[in-house]
Amino acid sequence: MRKITIAIDGFSSCGKSTMAKDLAKEIGYIYIDSGAMYRAVTLYCLRNNLFNDDGGIDAVALEKHIGDIKISFRLNDITSRPETLLNGENVETEIRTMEVSSKVSIVAALGFVREALVKLQQEMGKNKGIVMDGRDIGTVVFPDAELKIFVIASAEIRAKRRYDELTAKGQTVSYEEILANVVERDRIDQTREVSPLRKADDAIVLDNSDMSIPEQKIWLKNVFDKVTNV
Ligand code: DC
Fold this sequence. Notes:
Elements: E1 5-10, H1 16-27, E2 30-33, H2 34-47, H3 59-65, E3 71-75, E4 82-86, E5 89-90, H4 98-108, H5 111-124, E6 130-134, H6 137-141, E7 147-152, H7 155-168, H8 175-191, E8 204-207, H9 213-228
Parallel strand pairs: 1-6, 1-7, 2-6, 7-8
Antiparallel strand pairs: 3-4, 4-5
Helix pairs in contact: 1-9, 2-4, 2-5, 4-8, 7-8
The structure holds 2'-deoxycytidine-5'-monophosphate (DC).
């Protein structure tokens, strides 16, 4: 069967990764979490003290070092889940902390960061057979993707999901802080000058506010079957 490119975009914490990962596994495609790549660059910035006390970033220093930041993925042998590597080091857990979450939008708004990561993402998808999730996958990274999904859910539901996910991992977090972070990231993601979050004209909208994970999985597989069986 011919392989296609699948772009899944949407707001933060709306369950994109879960459904994208599950579909990729089921149909034997590569899965790429593009948000993890922006998070890995953010972690690099934190480790190298590139954030100023006022919350801004030393973009000049980051641009100088952007070529030194190597991001890759590998499948965990035991869980079969993808892990993000920053210069060869597994940073999958570290890139999911609140510290990274609260700074990542600033990094993702930098044109030269986006340019470098989009190039890498396009390279990863050049042979198709890929499911990639993010904010600009259907609009910028793969504008010709055969299947584009745009996922939405209310901010409160998304914050609750993130809260449950982090507490399940043993992190102590506050729901109010997460909700504020979700709302602020929505604002920055939608209003940034470079590649703001928007639905591609040919994307299918999925509001999963009231859907369970298995329901989303079935919905996505049905849409995939329709597109590939024509
Ligand atoms: O999906 P996520 O929450 O892990 O993404 C982290 C951040 O990266 C999010 O605030 C927006 C940004 N991002 C982006 O700008 N473009 C992408 N393709 C993916 C993520």
